[in-house]
Amino acid sequence: MIAMARTRARTAKRWQDADEMRWAVRHWAARIDVKVPLVHFRAMRTKWASMSHRRLTLDTGLLKLPKDLGEFVVVHELVHVLVRNHGRVFKSFMYAYMPDWEERDRRLRMRWKPAPPCDVAAR
Q1: With a threshold of 0.85, does the pTM exceed it?
Q2: What value, to the nearest 5°, has the Cα angle with vertex 110 and ends 65 and 99?
């Protein structure tokens, strides 16, 4: 009984599927007050995600990670709609929408295959 409860709790912290992550994108886009982009998933070698004015592309590997790390990537990319670089204004928005973003960034980097080139915390 306890083992089953732990499995359910662990599963609840992970993404069920791509549609659940798409819902999270819509939720965060509304919260940040940016237009909801089309959301696509594909295997990416050097990035977690990429954002254009029409499309948010997320790495399929994010679906295997805890939800809070996937949400960090989503918020990071949506904040880029407001601010294109990783300067002080970008960090201010990140703190406003996700106060623990630096800790999530650190945890994501520890779990990620090769660390992506974007180094927000160091800038």
Answers
A1: no
A2: 75
